[in-house]
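Bumping with the actual sequence this time:
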Amino acid sequence: MKCDQCDNVASVHLTQVVNGKMKKLHLCESCSSELGVGQGGFSVSDILLGKGVAKPLAGVPGNRACPECGWTLRKLRKKGRLGCSGCYEAFEKELKGILYSIHHATEHKGRVPKSHGESLSIRNRLDDLKSRISEAVADEKYEQAAKFRDEVQQLQDSLDSEESS
């Protein structure tokens, strides 16, 4: 049997049931070690589903490092975790792709406690408006930017009054 990653003879065989369907993955020695099989730094479901850190990130150099802790993209792929909080910014683009492939979204869309729901939606709206202001200014649409600025001010005032209550 041939390796699913290359044309060498497969010597490692993984099987998993996903959504009621059996998924099989056949790897040669070199591909299995490259993906971290047997090293504890991967999720079998990630490999079988072809997503997450186990899948090579195409066109991305693996030697780029986090400026705070020195954790590299190659290490992120191998270990499946980050080195520090600065890694979230250093590898933002790659993490968004990984999160989207796993969750089909890059933002939390779940439930929020009632006590935080309204203020959280206001904060999200504020973030959205601030990015729209930047876009409008870049496109030289100053009247639109002024409308967004006024809406930001109103939302900020309501948020401040809510927090002081």
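The tokens above came from a reply further down the thread. The chain has three domains: 1-50, 51-110, 114-164.
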